[in-house]
Amino acid sequence: MLDIAKIRADFPILERQVHKKNLAYLDNGATTLKPNQVVETIDKHYKEECSNIHRGIHWLSERATESYEGTREKVKNLINAESTDNIVFNSGTTAGINLVVQSYGRSQLNAGDEVIISAMEHHSNIVPWQMLRDEKGIVIKVVPVLEDGSLDMAAFYALISEKTKFISIMYVSNVLGTVNPMQEICDKANELNIPVLVDAAQAIAHMPVDVQKLNCTFMVFSAHKMYGPTGVGVLYGKAEYLEKMPPVNGGGDMILSVSFDKTVYNVAPYKFEAGTPNIAGVIGLGAAVDYLLTFDWQQVEDREAELIAYAHEKLEQIPGLKIIGTAKIKSGAVSFTMKDIHPHDIGTIVDRSGVAIRTGHHCAQPLMEFYGIVATARASFAIYNTKEEVDQLVKALEKVQEIFA
Ligand code: PMP
Predict the structure, then answer these.
(1) Apex 110 CA angle, 106 and 116, nearest 5
(2) Active site includes 216?
(3) So what's the ipTM on this one?
(4) Which of 57, 67, 326, 369 is deepest in the core (most CB within 10 A)?
């Protein structure tokens, strides 16, 4: 069993009062809170080893480089990558997808080639592909979503053809909480030799993720959704892909040699990390990985499943409340609407009770369109959340009903 009181003590922000009420932070899908272990590691970097990496041969620079590169090893272990060379640091999930699209997509895909995404994707896995479509004439095919918020897998199989040259799908929906059958999707992609990108932004802090078992070509995620700092993310790529992909940003640190006639690029992952990176952020990500790995995954999954089930049970009892996304396998998030009450009003009113939830389209406007709505209210969970916080949300929602009665 997870020791929730002990975990909560790692997150001093949970002690905050908001509008004179105890904070119930249920916006973890947007970003998780950061434990002392992460904040202190970043603090320590700036106070004790602040330096640029890879460049100097001085002592401080060596320390900073060791910590930075140490995170590559930690991330490699977290996702069971083949080697640290498969781990590219960037600014987040969005940057990771854009890199794959602008590098692999631009160099390898041609007019008429089809890319399969899904109707539940985050805008960050839609818009970069549309930009490539406008530039090169690729065709985007969309796997529809079933009413319960699961992927229409029959449609997925039907969409695959000889023209399919890439598949890019989210592991867990940030709106619906649906856990997609990623292994099945990767198996099919591999059978047909189609590269597949897994957007693991909402999976990485909630379940064990194994890139070799999935056998995915690429995986992307953000540190800030896994108890780490903002502005840092990871792109995992299979070696044979990263090797043939051209860099997108040119500059310092991504080269072996430069002359006005000829520049020789560094190897992966360095050729994708031009310029001074977010050193403190990457080091903070390393601390977040360490923190995450102090827990037993089964216990994390059980705990979060219990919270989700409890939230479903309690929310379903509120008259007029509709849960959007009722797939059997869910993780992390519960979205809902309340008749004609605008989700922004719901969010504003529950905030007065100290409850932080997200409202809006959650960067998934096509999914909103599918459900014929413009927005939802979303409660999303992390390891420190409690049933009492769900109760606090439910009470606040009852207040919303009173106000709009
Ligand atoms: N994909 C998913 C599934 C997400 O939930 C998010 C963040 N809400 C993103 C991509 C984008 O992540 P970031 O803003 O950290 O780049």
Answers:
(1) 85
(2) no
(3) 0.99
(4) 67
The secondary structure element, H or E, covering residue 335 is strand 333-338
SS3 of residue 220 by DSSP? strand
Cα Rg of the chain, angstroms: 22
For 366, other C-beta atoms within 10 Å of its C-beta total 16
Residue 149 Cα, ligand 1 centroid: separation in angstroms?
Answer: 18
Alpha carbons 396 and 405: distance in angstroms, whole number: 14
N-to-C CA span, the chain: 42
CA triplet 127, 72, 228: central angle to 5 degrees?
A: 65
Tokens of 375: 């927005």
DSSP helix/strand/coil, 194: coil
List of residues 6+ apart from 340 with CB closer than 8 A? 404
Find the 209 Cα to ligand 1 centroid distance in Å: 17
What is the DSSP track for 254-292?
Answer: SEEEE-SS-EEEPPTTGGG--SS--HHHHHHHHHHHHHH
CA distances to 97, 138, 140, 163 from 128, in Å: 7, 12, 11, 19
- Residue 191: count other Cβ atoms within 10 Å of its Cβ: 9
Residues in the chain: 405
Give the pLDDT of the chain (405 residues) as one tens digit per residue: 899 999 999 999 999 999 999 999 999 999 999 999 999 999 999 999 999 998 778 999 999 999 999 999 999 999 999 999 999 999 999 999 999 999 999 999 999 999 999 999 999 999 999 999 999 999 999 999 999 999 999 999 999 999 999 999 999 999 999 999 999 999 999 999 999 999 999 999 999 999 999 999 999 999 999 999 999 999 999 999 999 999 999 999 999 999 999 999 999 999 999 999 999 999 999 999 999 999 999 999 999 999 999 999 999 999 999 999 999 888 989 999 999 999 999 999 999 999 999 999 999 999 999 999 999 999 999 999 999 999 999 999 999 999 998
Q: How far is the CA of 122 from the centre of ligand 1 (A)?
A: 7
Q: Which residues line ligand 1 (CB under 6 A)?
A: 92-94, 122, 124, 170, 174, 199, 201-202, 222, 363
Helices 387-404 and 297-316, axial angle in degrees (round to 10): 20
Residue closest to 284 by CA, chosen among 323, 234, 236, 249 = 234
